[in-house]
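Q&A FORM
Asked by: J.P.
Topic: structure of CCR4-NOT transcription complex subunit 10

PROVIDED:
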Amino acid sequence: MSDKQEPNGKGTAANITDQERDWAQQALAEYEQKNYKSCLEHLQRIEASRPNDPKVLLNKAIVEFYENGLCTSDKFQKSFIDVCKQVELNLELLDSLEDVENCIYYYNYAVFLYHLKHYTKALAMINKVYSFIESLEESLAHKVCLLIVQLHIDTNKPAEALKLITYIESQFVSTDNATNILTGSADQGGPIHNETEKTEKKANLDAATDAFRVSLIQYRVRSLMELNSFDECSQQLNTIKEKQDSITMFLIGKLEYLRGNHKEALAILKQIPVKDDFIETGECSSVLINNNVACLYHYAKKPTLSFTSIYKAIVQHQKNIIDVTKPNQAEGSLSGQPLHIIGASIKTELMFNLGISLLHARKPEEAFDCLIEAVQTYHMNPRLWLRLAECCIMTHKKSNDRDFDFKKPYIEGVVGSGKHRKIILKSQLFPDTKYSCEAVSASIPMPSLEFGSLCVRNAVLLLHNDTIDCSPSHTPINTPHKDYLFGCIQSAGAYIALCLGDPVVALKYSQELLKSDKINKVHKFLGHLYAAEALILSDKPNEAIDMLKESNAFDDIEPEIHEQLRIEQWKPDKQKSAKAVLYYNLAVALTLRGDLDKAGELLKQIWLSKIEHVSVPVHVVILALYIHLRLGQKEIAITLIKQNCPQAKR
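REPLIED BY: S.T.
REPLY: Here is the structure written out as tokens.
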């Protein structure tokens, strides 16, 4: 909230008695010393003398709020609105603000909304106050400037924030006019000060102006980071490096992190002093440090260390919240916690980070629980819905290594002996390849493929918006990232639809994926595979064959496969292995069409690549057995069984 304002506005100062002025100055001094009880006593004396003065009532409501530890937000809001009604102000109608004397009401309410994280509404209100910026008292003007810049950053408007900072610096930091206002040398009403008082006042205000200048530079750096202007960030930080305050050090560490210098960022984080000032500021340095360290471990591909560090941050944050929460004796949902703590809660952001770390640590069920909590707040983020879909996919199938493991037995058993000995092959290689037919509602939040399909649909709809919400991340989704995200979402949707036995939906996702000429080659490869499988399931082998034959995804796909494997280990892991998978799918389609000879030739090419230590799908053996038996090549089939099935030799 704003500092207590003396009731000396234009049109009222002439009516204030010397006694009332003395009480007001004493109240202000007590307020600045945080002696709220004594301050309240002075205000009550003023209220008895001036019962209808709205500024006195406003200051009394603010001081009572502070006296109660900022834990009676509902009571304060009611008192504040009552004061506004007394001066005939409607806070919902911004056009009703016409008198500069009423700006203090709108500013205080904008701060209140900011702490409740109602950023858009708070920004609209503070924008109206900002239109009177040149007429405001200096300390209030500084607070208005900082708040409007903060809100522009919180609403993902870094470019507008930079323009504001440039103007504010020219008006309040760099000009003689600002100095005159600060020192009181301009024509102003007020008491006469001696030279000593003027010198002390100038020194205090110079310190305040310097702190204001540093805050603006820090805001400029934050805005530039979101615009990826890292060189300019470095130049700005060099001007305030000597301050060595925790905010500046966090910014320096983040800059190194964004530049990919993770070791340097970690070294800077270790230098930041740990302060337990959560009650005063709503921020805990140990929580922030553990969260940032977790991010560094995440990009160092150490997911276990990452979620361990972020878990420490969550435990500490929850402890801090419990320590400052009082029993809710007052009525209202906002009471019980200090106002700045309500807005300072970062549990959702921490749960988001924990969920991402757990997902990369291959713990999809635990990751799902964390991300489902985060999506209740950030439900407009398509990337978050994709992560939930990936949790559902990984729960269904954590790895596809077994699809390339030739050590798996193909034989169910052996019966008989001698010339009557019979080999019973497995009806299916893996007993859990078919998804459960039990009815599962897609609306129930659980890591199922049904819910995963709903997540994909949400992600598709949100990705089509003109402005994409990337919260809690402040990094905007630019065009290349959007194209990559589109490929991930469409391929995930096609995979889930195939697993659920819905070839029509799978084909739709695959065709949408292949329509785009901006997707990378890995996604194009998956698009052809999924589209072909959907066509086969739709009893259209000829179209499936055409789809696989026209695939041109193999033009130097190796670099993109390696780039993908930096994020997640998966197979196929090489271009030759990917080619073997596509040839296998083509052989299946040819077999279904009856072209057994062509299918056999393709299988021979796949088998030759296996000899060169290329990962190929184990299903090749079963398909080869089927083709040889269909062609009447019994001896070749028996040889194939003996080579790949040790049980057959017993």
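FOLLOW-UP: The first strand starts at residue 411 and ends at 415.
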